[in-house]
C-alpha cells in the first residue's frame, strides 16, 4: 500500500526541482486561490466556507483585494431603484 502523502510530497519536490522553481510551497497555492476569489468578489463568508476556515480572520486577509466589491454592492441597490422607477413609469403610461 502507498503512503500517498509521501508519494505526493516527493513528486511535488521532484517537479519543483525539474522546473527550477525555488522557495515555493504547496500551501502557496491556497493563498493564490483565495486571492483570486477575493479579486472576483466572492463574498467573505462564502470564501470562509470554501476555504474551510472556522473564523473570518483568515479570509479577511484577502478582502482588500476585492477592489470592485463596494461599487458592485452599491450597484445592486441602484439597479433595484432603477428597475422600480421603470415599473412606476410603465404603470403610469398604462393608466394614461
UniProtKB/TrEMBL annotation:
Tell whether Ribonucleoprotein is among the UniProt keywords: no
Question: Which UniProt key words apply to this protein?
Answer: DNA recombination
Tell me which SUPFAM superfamilies the record gives.
DNA breaking-rejoining enzymes
Pfam short name (any one): Phage_integrase
Q: Which domain of life is it from?
A: Bacteria
Q: In what residue span(s) does the Tyr recombinase domain sit?
A: 8-66
* The protein, known as: Tyr recombinase domain-containing protein
Taxonomic source organism: Silvimonas amylolytica
Amino acid at each position: 500500500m502507498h503512503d500517498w502523502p509521501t508519494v505526493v510530497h516527493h513528486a511535488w519536490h521532484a517537479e519543483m526541482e525539474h522546473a527550477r522553481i525555488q522557495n515555493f510551497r504547496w500551501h502557496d497555492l491556497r493563498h493564490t486561490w483565495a486571492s483570486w476569489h477575493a479579486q472576483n468578489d466572492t463574498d467573505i463568508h462564502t470564501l470562509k466556507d470554501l476555504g474551510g476556515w472556522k473564523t473570518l480572520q483568515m479570509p479577511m486577509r484577502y478582502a482588500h483585494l476585492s477592489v470592485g466589491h463596494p461599487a458592485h454592492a452599491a450597484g445592486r441597490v441602484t439597479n433595484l431603484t432603477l428597475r422600480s422607477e421603470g415599473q412606476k413609469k410603465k404603470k403610469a403610461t398604462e393608466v394614461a
